[in-house]
Amino acid sequence: MLPFFATCPKGLETLLLDELTQLGATQLQETVAGIGFKADLAMAYRACMWSRLASRIMLQLSEFTMRTDMDLYLGAANVAWEEHIQPGQTFAVDFSGSNEAITNTQYGALKIKDAIVDRLTKRHGERPNVDKRAPDIRILAHLKRNNQLSITLDLSGPALHQRGYRQQAGEAPLKENLAAAILLRSGWDKSAPLVDPMCGSGTLLIEAALMAADIAPGLLRVRFGFMAWSRHDKNAWQEISAQATVRATRGLKQCQVQLIGFDQDKRVLRFAQENALAAGVETLIDFRLASVEQLVNPFTQHSGLSATQASNDEPLTGWLISNPPYGERLSEFPSLLGLHQLLGNKLREQFKGWRVSLISSSSELLSCLRLRPDKTYKLFNGALACELRNYLIAADAKTARPLAEDFANRLTKNIKQLEKWAKAEHIDCYRLYDADLPEYNAAIDRYQDHIVIQEYAAPKTIPEHKARARFYDLVQATMAVTGVTGNKLVLKVRARQLGREQYERLDKREQWLQVQEHNAKLLVNLFDYLDTGLFLDHRPTRKRISELAYGKDFLNLFAYTGTASVHAGLGGAKSTTTVDMSNTYLAWAERNMALNGLVGRAHQFIQADCLTWLRQPGESYDVIFVDPPTFSNSKRMEDNFDIQRDHIELLGLLSQHLRQDGLVIFSNNKRHFKMDTEGLAALGLHATEVSKQSLPKDFARNPHIHNCWDIRWA
After folding, report:
1. Is residue 233 part of a domain?
2. Contact 689/534 with Cβ under 8 angstroms?
3. What is the dihedral of CA 409, 415, 420, 426, to 10 degrees?
4. Is residue 539 located within the same domain as residue 643?
5. What are phi and psi of 575, to 5 degrees?
6. For the residues of 536-562, what is the DSSP string, one character each?
7. Mind giving me the DSSP string for 161-207?
8. Quick one: 112 and 141 in the same domain?
9. 675 and 557 in a common domain
């Protein structure tokens, strides 16, 4: 009996132990991501041929304590390498783990390589060659935390999950051994109908077909690591291979399993068909083009199956097993949430009495199914931690109750109140909800047929899991109430922003939407930045600027995307000057102006730090709009800026550019801002607060969204 070690992805150890026991292994010892066992060589070959779960099967050559690099060299040199590697053969060494002596895996591999080369050169009289890419023999060394080093010979060659049938793959495909584990954990009866509604390149269904037809997962492979090994028993391997061929031939003839896969991507579905053909199971799998939205149970009396396949009295029951997409970026989440919400509804409507198993790295997305799992398993897709949840869809499953009913009712009421008003005002963009209910802490804005949800950072007193759950409920309820699809729903997280952090780029979609605001056409970008390019709460101020601007010279400072300049220009301003520190936003402002036919010398765009620009002698203006940040420490500014501390200095600089009968409209977003009236009077200016008048109808519940002042010469 020889000592072996089988590796597997974390979470599959118990399954692998059972599988190796059935294959004839003894003295099994379970560890993290692997099983140690004793067996003869034939049994190790059977494991290479038949294991659906193992990543590698390795023969253990040596294990010793290693505290220094000399221990490593001497321990490796004591292995009888001449019994494993013949003259003229190539080898490679892979090393994992570290301790105080070996902190670099490449160095560890190098010391073992040196020991092998020295011993073989001495024994054979010639130096062996190293081939890291395709060696005849691969040596694996693993250093454990207790300083025990294990040296093994890899019998597998390429990892065993590489069955040999995968010709093409879609995005983020499942490894074949993980797919097999999912099928085993699901409890699937190998004779029962199986549906994968998002089959991708078909891995789950192909693995199911191999199981149902009793086809060894290693039968298609042309190369194993033991084939060039000196002690390889060709006769034993030929017998195992021949037996597997006979079983596969018989299994394919007898197999009656019904496997159906759906996918909405023609290209990926073609990959699945090619993979099934390469695996020799194309006759067992029916691949169909359909989205989840089009999903129906194919095993019902209306499915087109024969009377022997589906009873007219009740549908067949079976298993639905799938690996739904689970993106890691917030921008991907709305579509995925909508997909899972739809899938949950389809399961309740179409698959009553069925067993369902779904794997995902996002427990939140699985929760959007609104199904209670019977069992949950922790698995790993590569390094990605995942959950496999098993469900039984009740025969009397009903449509899920509406989520967040109080919130949904409030949102419905708000929409009813605002839609007619917005249409009458020729407004495409407005706020639907702004943390009206404390437990649903978000702002929701409409941009034509898009919805933007900005999640406010939850108070530290609210547990993160509870805040997350409420937010996901809010998102799902918003989709249900508004009817918005996932590709037109935008999610953002809004915490307290410093300076121009609110303008920092989040994505690079360059997806622009032209919207209407009164008589102005404006460009917004819903995806690439935290803010969209249009501050909705300043809408009345922009309209007022339009009414004040006729025949006037207008200055827009801290101009952002120049929307106030657009309204001034449309109001008949004699000239507009738009100043901002960002070239990106000045270019955006120019596009907004050009969209409205506002081009030419009368409309100037200046890239500058506004405070520095104001200190320079220059033109004077009739109307000045200034909406500075609450705080900024941008590297482009000469000094940091605090609106409460520095507003008198700012207004003093502005006064040098304000004509005698001119007006400054001064706005900021600092809560509890206090105007320094004495400092203002010393400048010869007078301020009148117009915050209440500047508040639009859709922000009536949030009077502190901004404050606004008219400032004139006293």
Report:
1. no
2. no
3. 180
4. yes
5. -155, 155
6. GGGHHHHHHHHHH-TT-EEEEES-TT-
7. T--S--S---SSPPPHHHHHHHHHHHT--TTS-EEETT-TT-HHHHH
8. yes
9. yes
φ and ψ at 454, to 5 degrees? -110, 115
Provide the pLDDT for residue 498.
37
Provide the domain limits for residue 91. 2-154
Kindly report the CATH number assigned to the domain that includes residue 368: 3.40.50.150
Beta strands in 269-383 (DSSP E): 285-289, 319-322, 355-360, 375-381
pLDDT given at position 632: 84
- Asked which of 366, 392, 418 is the last residue of a domain, the reply is 392
* Tokens 């402002």 -> residue: 589
The verdict on residue 169 lying in a domain is no
Bridge partners, 553 (sequence order): 575
| DSSP labels, 230-251 | TT--HHHHHHHHHHHHHHHHHH
Paired residues of 208 in beta bridges: none
Closest CA to 25 of 9, 13, 40: 40
Rounded distance between C-alpha atoms, residue 235 and residue 666, angstroms? 90
**Cα–Cα dist 347/614, whole Å:** 64
User: How many whole angstroms separate alpha carbon 354 and alpha carbon 392?
Assistant: 6
Amino acid, single-letter form, for residue 7: T
Per-residue confidence (pLDDT) for residue 640, from 0 to 100: 85
Q: CB count, 10 Å around CB of 314?
A: 12
Number of structural domains found in the chain: 4
Q: What is the mean pLDDT for each group of 10 consecutive residues in the chain (714 residues)?
A: 97 97 97 96 98 98 96 97 95 96 96 97 92 95 95 97 87 88 97 97 97 97 95 97 98 96 96 96 97 93 46 72 83 84 94 97 91 96 93 88 90 96 97 93 96 87 84 91 91 56 61 97 93 96 98 98 98 98 96 98 96 94 97 68 95 96 97 95 97 96 94 96
User: Given this model, what pLDDT does residue 393 score?
Assistant: 96
Contact (CB, 8 A) for 523 and 591: yes
